[in-house]
Amino acid sequence: MTTDLAPPTPPTESGESTPGPSGFAAAGAVDATKVYGVGDAEVRALDGVTVSFETGKFTAIMGPSGSGKSTLLHCLAGLDVLTSGATFVGDTYLATLDDKALTELRRTKVGFVFQAYNLIPTLTAEENIMLPMMLGGESGDAEWIDNVITTVGLKDRIHHRPSELSGGQQQRVAVARALASRPQIIFADEPTGNLDSTTGAEILDFMRRAVREFGQTIVMVTHDPVAASYADRAIFVADGKLDGELLDPTSEQILERMIQIGN
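Above: the chain's sequence. Below: its structure in token form.
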């Protein structure tokens, strides 16, 4: 499955990637393959995946356990390296970057939300939100950050440490941290996996609002059809390959599609 969104022009011999036609995807993969192990132990977690993700949209990646969905997300985000093929963010192919440049891209252009929150226990909620910018010696846009903090409902908890916050509040901090620097794209890996259904729905609703009201781009891995129904688009992965997509999906449509994949 491909889309009509253009990837950047392939790198030249000098290793540089140049912008291509209008209609860039926010991120994507071209013939992405990831192999673990060798010989009889070889596992093809990704097997020639080509996909792109539209700017200003909320996309869910779904598939059975072991399908390759999290591997795809991690390779798109530069947290893992492909065996062959390419991934890109904006007009940059990740393979053209050295470690320093890749770290800089992840800090400035990519936001992350994980199931485990990944907050620093000794820092306050505000300090955790500001941490990526602080590491780069930046203070960010104060008005925007205040808007994000207010929108996620943390105004009265901003000076509390993670141990003083509920699971839902900690995940709100993680989402606010991902939004604070206005990244080009946010990657979320099972962001509501540790939350009860009510709190999870609140987080998902905020993520959807971030896309529709703030123009954010979010790509989320989830196993939950209800969570995926908050997205503008759901793509399905099975055995390391893409296996169709749904636009403006309902939870019932997603569940039916997952049952088909399982059979």
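The radius of gyration is 18 Å.
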